[in-house]
Amino acid sequence: MQISILTVDLDFNLFMLIRKISQKNISISNIIVAPKKKLHPIRKKQIKIKRTIFTNHNNYFNNIFFKIITRKVKLFLKHIIFFIIKFKYKFTVIYLDKNFENNKNIQFNNTTLMYSYEGIVSQKFLTKFKNGLINIHPAILPEFRGLDAGLWALYEGGKLGVSAYLLDEGIDTGPIIKNYKVNKSQFKSVHEYIKLLKDLKLNSYPDAIKKYKSNNFKNYNPKIKKYQNRGLMSLKRIKELVKKIHKEN
Q: 100: which residues sit within 8 A by CB, 6+ positions away?
């Protein structure tokens, strides 16, 4: 079984994903590095403020000088690890330019995992991936779609977890391969919850690939309703959520 992975960056979590997938007898033929999309200014501001809410500012690791040194060390280590992983797993790295969607000669025949690529994709984009593009959304679909869906699920007391699904042109509207659930006893803060979802997402890819390859879908035609996409959560509600989870634990 061969797959490709679509990413905007070569980072340490991607290296972990490559290792996890390869251990499950799934071969990676290509790592496709796409140009990073520009985030909307509102989204960029939201991400920045969230980081300040979820981070302990007294932490030594937030020292600016230490961050600069750490960034350089990380970059050096990343290059070394990537060289070793590329040699070990023998995949090809393909770098796309910003106009790749209009290039008729670019086609990928393997089932492709979307590891990192924020934003709605176009039909032109989807046609580049002939055997499907799998994404894992950090909330339970179709109940919680769109940005901040994982936070909304926690805020509203809904089911928690991540969902593997097949991409289409909508906002998290494609056929659902599987929901992977967590419960509130597994975390004590919003920060721990977000990390738990990230870990679960990483660990769910191999199973999602195999289910998709065997045509094993949980819900091929999910019922899509407008209220399922609640949009960005306000800063006021995020702060309320952080306090609420802190009090409960």
A: 34, 35, 106, 128
